[in-house]
Amino acid sequence: MAMSEFYGDPMPEEQAIALIKKAFSNGVNFFDTADIYGYGDNEVLLGRAVASLVNSGVARENIIIASKCGIIRDKNDLTKRGTDNSYQYVKESCKKSLARLSSSVGYIDLYYLHRIAENGAQIEEAMRAMAELLAENKIKAVGLSEANPIIIANANKVLIHYTQGIHQLAAVQSEYSLMTRNVENNGVLAICRKLGITFVAYSPLSRALLTGKLESAEQLAKNDFRRSVPRFQGENFEKNKAIVKEIRKLAEKKGCSIAQIALAWVMHQPGVIPIPGTTKEANLLSNIAADEVKLSSEEILFLNKLNPAQGTRYSEAAMKIYGFEGEL
Length: 328
Fold this sequence. Notes:
- By secondary structure, this protein is an alpha/beta fold.
- The relative contact order is 0.11.
């Protein structure tokens, strides 16, 4: 995502493709995109990176591509957001995503509803569309992003029905980190574990808060969306930096980075896969190395007892559009 939008200017394509290939050569084979990232440019970028890998002899089946549909954006109003999970929208969105990803990708390994529309009222028709996409071999698995436990359970049941028991939900993606832990208390992690659904944690570094490298919002580009996020503003930001200072103590003790501690904590959670993003090779390699950081039960307890983050993870308007009012 960050390669194409939201965190300042897009990366030059050649550099972005080189970084994706570097990730693959270092053992990363799961790449996450969406139709709204850069208004589709991110899918085009990833498709070109996959084409380069395939042309170099990498088997397509060794690369896992996740994409998403369900959020509506307006190029004329960058702050505008809407949601749509209708049957026709899901089918058409997948067609467009596959075109952007190109024939080198060919199919989407994991296709998510990016956000839930109308409090789940369109879930049945969305799963019917997903079932057809599965039967057409356009996608290989289905996921939801930022769904509540009731919707997860219902979508899972409906997908099983429409695929005659062949497919259930493969993944649920939500924000999860030491700064964002609501899925522990709202039943999302519990229902995923109960139903055997993999939980994919996005923003496991809380949009770089958990790197210890952000001291001021002035470090952010003028077009960086984090400037609009309450968690990065004023007193909230100062309190969140105090949390990071506590993590730094443990990182120094273990001889690793703050980010590696944060990622190790996420990977310690059963059934959870983190998907940290980056635009820098050094950060990529550091994130990969976090897999080698082992935390003791005492260290996990210390991290679990940290103060909760201050400020919401999106702007108030976005929180309401996406149905996150319970976090306000």
